[in-house]
Amino acid sequence: MNIIIVSRKHGRSRMVSSWLLAPVFLFVLVMVSALGYGGYRLFAPDEIVIIDSQAANAWADRVKLQAIELEKTQIYTEEQINALRIRLAELQARLTRIDALGERLVDVANLDEGEFDFSMPPAVGGPESSSVEANPPDFVDVLNELGLQIENREQQLRVLNSLLGDRKIQSETFVAGRPISKGWMSSRYGYRNDPFNGNLAWHDGVDFAGKDGSTIVSVASGVVTWAGERYGYGNLVEINHGNGYVTRYAHAKEVLVEVGDVIKKADVIALMGSTGRSTGPHVHFEVLLQGKSVDPAKYIDRVARF
Fold first, then answer.
1. How many Cβ atoms sit within 10 Å of the Cβ of residue 94?
2. Coil, strand or helix: which one is 273?
3. Helices (H), the chain
4. Whole-structure pTM over 0.70, yes or no?
5. What pLDDT score does 286 carry?
6. Per-residue pLDDT tens for 78-102?
7. Hey, how many other C-beta atoms are within 10 angstroms of the C-beta on 120?
8. Percent helix, strand and coil across the chain, each rounded to 5?
């Protein structure tokens, strides 16, 4: 291949071989490539680095801090759960005491166990109604509120138990009833003819005749202040019931209690006999109020009102 070169100055043409121009084209090509690469490097954006070592270390430190916070949160949560367990156990114990106290009140007050059964949850009911959306209260607040309710119930039950206990004590120490299980009244209180000499004499009690060896019972709770032989009475049991009341049970065949014994109402204290100044098996029953004898007939048919 030949290339013709025309000169403008002299108007002459000249033929040049393509092989002589090859180095020139190669040089131009290299220069264009060099300039293109340099321009690309000059104007191309910097290489984007996704993560470097500094960022990686920062992330590692953050993960360690989060792990520490998570451990602290777990410890705090376990402590709170343990505290709630203890609180719940306290409430359950208090409920158990309330149930026990309630059952005792039912027994003391002679209430119907079927009506007040503390072993069963209270009966509730009602027609189903549309639900109301509400934010549920915090369970800690619920437990605290339940604790306050239980405390109020305990206080009320303590007051009620105290009142019923006082009523029970008053009922037990209330002098009333017959001092025998079986028998009949053979002599009344007041003036009568003495059974030994026939003269008019004062009788401080009432006599109940019955079968020899039959039981003599206390007409009220109290403490035994005399248990043994006394002149004219034979074998005598004397009981102090408080509030100024004392009862005496005389002519017993056998005394079954001792001084200092605490006696309950209707307890058997002696056996009927004819010891002392007596004409046959009977019990001489006296009631003393503030140290003075009173008519026992007023207390034999006495009815308690509490």
1. 16
2. strand
3. 18-43, 53-108, 139-173, 297-300
4. no
5. 95
6. 887 787 778 777 777 777 777 676 6
7. 8
8. 40, 25, 35
Asked if 265 and 242 count as a contact pair (C-beta separation under 8 A), the reply is no
Q: For residue 50, what is the DSSP state?
A: S
Amino acid symbol at 218:
S
Contacts of 33 (CB under 8 A, 6+ apart): none
> In the chain, which stretches have pLDDT less than 50?
16, 306
Which single residue is written with the structure tokens 């290299």?
Answer: 30
Beta carbons of 217 and 297 less than 8 angstroms apart: no
Least Cα distance to 301 among 170, 173, 169, 178 occurs for: 178
Instruction: Give the side-chain half-sphere CA count within 13 A for 212.
Output: 8
Tokens of 299: 């207390």
193-224: b (≥16 Cβ within 10 Å) or e: eeeeeeeeeebbbbbbbbeeebbbbbbbbbeb
Q: What is the DSSP letter of 44?
A: S
**Alpha carbon of residue 68 to chain centroid:** 40
Residues 193 and 206: beta-carbon distance below 8 Å: no
Q: How far apart are CA 134 and CA 120, in angstroms?
A: 30
* Residue written as token pair 């705090």: 76
Instruction: Find out whether 224 and 246 touch, Cβ atoms under 8 Å.
Output: no
Write the single-letter amino acid at 83.
A
Angle at 185 between CA 184 and CA 188, to 5 degrees: 180
What Cα–Cα distance (Å) separates residue 266 from each residue in 17, 177, 241, 262?
A: 154, 9, 13, 12
